[in-house]
From TrEMBL:
<feature type="domain" description="6-phosphogluconate dehydrogenase C-terminal">
    <location>
        <begin position="182"/>
        <end position="471"/>
    </location>
</feature>
<comment type="pathway">
    <text>Carbohydrate degradation; pentose phosphate pathway; D-ribulose 5-phosphate from D-glucose 6-phosphate (oxidative stage): step 3/3.</text>
</comment>
<dbReference type="Pfam" id="PF03446">
    <property type="entry name" value="NAD_binding_2"/>
</dbReference>
<dbReference type="InterPro" id="IPR008927">
    <property type="entry name" value="6-PGluconate_DH-like_C_sf"/>
</dbReference>
<dbReference type="InterPro" id="IPR006114">
    <property type="entry name" value="6PGDH_C"/>
</dbReference>
<keyword id="KW-0521">NADP</keyword>
<dbReference type="InterPro" id="IPR006115">
    <property type="entry name" value="6PGDH_NADP-bd"/>
</dbReference>
<dbReference type="InterPro" id="IPR006183">
    <property type="entry name" value="Pgluconate_DH"/>
</dbReference>
<dbReference type="InterPro" id="IPR006113">
    <property type="entry name" value="6PGDH_Gnd/GntZ"/>
</dbReference>
<keyword id="KW-0570">Pentose shunt</keyword>
<keyword id="KW-0311">Gluconate utilization</keyword>
<keyword id="KW-0560">Oxidoreductase</keyword>
<protein>
    <recommendedName>
        <fullName>6-phosphogluconate dehydrogenase, decarboxylating</fullName>
        <ecNumber>1.1.1.44</ecNumber>
    </recommendedName>
</protein>
<comment type="subunit">
    <text>Homodimer.</text>
</comment>
<dbReference type="InterPro" id="IPR013328">
    <property type="entry name" value="6PGD_dom2"/>
</dbReference>
<dbReference type="Pfam" id="PF00393">
    <property type="entry name" value="6PGD"/>
</dbReference>
<dbReference type="InterPro" id="IPR036291">
    <property type="entry name" value="NAD(P)-bd_dom_sf"/>
</dbReference>
Length: 483
């Protein structure tokens, strides 16, 4: 092994790590050191891909010695304890100015904690969200790195060399912000992904139940939708999934797959964080809860005795209903992205990050799971108005919501009357109506809170904070605002 032969290293050589290492090695100017706790995986990767010119290491000391300074290593191991263990080992063999990158799906508070601890050694720590799955890792992901400005000087060119490239030639990577900013944005990306997937599933369910069309016929509908404003990776693969026939039974594969959706935690993190920030992300929340409900078959089995509407759902105008569902899907999708960007803005304010929302939308245009044509429109909206308070109010999206709201309402009404669950459609519409309301019933909630807990309230006609003495003569008094 040649000392200091590599400019970048990868620790953890499971599928994602191996594919990322191969991607790095395929780009001009990169020489990649590789290390895995199990020597077998390192040997297998090096032997399977001699063209990559990997520099194998079989200890952390060898790994560090194989890297040119500032040493840069990307960790691709399981989140949690395994990540902490690798960081501890690298800190022992790295020096001030070196860079440790966590490319896993870490929870951003863990990244903040790790960055603070590693920074005290003089070593840079970067939490980088990497989206695109195994294929993206190999051929070009969307990358969301946080970390220090100093680390970006070295890391930026390396990550740009492997990132997906948008239609305009821009690599899908940008320096998101300091400490946990990168993993925060990746978390919200995944939350939006939950909402997008649930909305598509609801659209499929409504069309199938309402029109009686087969999965293959609905696949054609999604393929057609993918040529218009709904063009996206998720719409594209939905058509492929619906066309798939199970080789064993001859049935549509979607009818053979158990209807219990899994989750790895990022959707829940998005919702939990939004709650702590006071940001409504109802579409993402309902998508997350829909997965939870699907995963409780014992409850669903018992609850089948509960009554429904008792009538079969069949629409009169199938083509018209399909178009209504398309418009409802697009409108709800706008709300999901708008809520997600609201959460990113709130997170940036809470954690003192400077995050360019337009730049975030641009790096999601290729490589990642939620890549979609209309992300260009989001980038345009933030370019025109960087401090846009609500993405849904940008002219393009406001116009789309105006055009689609009648269809959106018809779809939610039809689903409700037929007893078909459509939580993401319904909650997105409720959020839209709440957002545009002149007055909300929160006034009554404040009255109730003051009644049972003396929480006080404000008035519309004068300044100050007030409390009513609800027993006796109901006298209102001005109160010190201690809440």
């Amino acid at each position: 092994m040649n000392a200091a032969a590599a400019n970048i290293g990868v620790v953890g050589l499971a599928v994602m790590g191996s594919n990322l290492a191969r991607n790095l090695a395929s780009r001009e100017g990169n020489t990649v050191a590789v290390y895995n706790r199990s020597r077998t995986k390192t040997d297998e990767l090096v032997q399977a891909h001699p063209e990559a010119g990997f520099v194998p290491a079989f200890s952390y000391e060898e790994f560090a010695a194989s890297l040119s300074k500032p040493r840069t290593a990307i960790i691709m191991v399981k989140a949690g304890g395994p990540t902490d263990a690798v960081i501890d080992e690298l800190v022992k063999v790295f020096e001030p100015g070196d860079i440790i990158v966590d490319g896993g799906n870490a929870y951003f508070p863990d990244t903040i904690r790790r960055e603070k601890a590693v920074r005290e050694t003089g070593i840079n720590f970067v939490g980088a969200g990497i989206s695109g799955g195994e294929e993206g890792a190999l051929n070009g992901p969307s990358i969301m790195p946080g970390g220090s400005d100093e680390s970006w000087v070295t890391l930026g060119p390396i990550l740009k060399s492997i990132a997906a490239v948008a239609d305009d030639g821009e690599p899908c990577v940008t320096h998101i912000g300091h400490d946990g900013a990168g993993h925060f944005v990746k978390m919200v990306h995944n939350g939006i992904e939950y909402a997008d997937m649930q909305l598509i599933a609801e659209a499929y369910d409504l069309i199938r139940r309402g029109t009686g069309r087969t999965p293959a016929e609905i696949a054609d509908i999604f393929a057609e939708w993918n040529t218009g404003e709904l063009e996206s990776y998720l719409i594209e693969i939905t058509a492929e999934v619906l066309r798939q026939v199970d080789a064993e039974t001859g049935k549509p594969l979607v009818d053979v797959i158990l209807d219990q959706a899994g989750a790895k935690g990022t959707g829940a993190w998005t919702v939990q964080t939004a709650l702590s920030l006071g940001v409504p992300v109802s579409g993402i929340a309902e998508a997350t809860f829909a997965r939870s409900l699907s995963s409780h078959p014992e409850q669903r089995e018992v609850a089948r005795v509960l009554p429904g509407p008792g009538t079969e759902f069949q629409v009169d105008d199938a083509d018209g209903f399909v178009e209504d569902v398309r418009q409802a899907l697009f409108a709800s999708k706008i709300i999901a992205y708008s809520q997600g960007f609201d959460e990113i803005r709130a997170g940036a304010a809470e954690y003192n990050w400077t995050i360019d929302l337009g730049a975030v939308s641009k790096i999601w245009r290729a490589g990642c799971i939620i890549r979609a044509q209309f992300l260009n429109r989001i980038a345009d909206a933030y370019a025109e108005q960087p401090e846009l308070p609500v993405l849904a109010t940008a002219p393009y999206f406001a116009d789309a919501l105006t055009r689609g709201q009648a269809a959106w309402r018809r779809v939610v009404i039809a689903a409700t009357q037929a007893g078909i669950p459509s939580p993401a459609f319904s909650s997105s519409l409720a959020y839209y109506d709440g957002l545009r309301a002149d007055r909300l019933p929160a006034a009554l909630v404040q009255g109730q809170r003051d009644f049972f807990g003396a929480h006080t309230y404000k008035r519309i006609d004068k300044e100050g904070t007030f409390h009513t003495l609800w027993s006796g003569d109901r006298t209102e008094i001005e109160a010190e605002d201690t809440h």
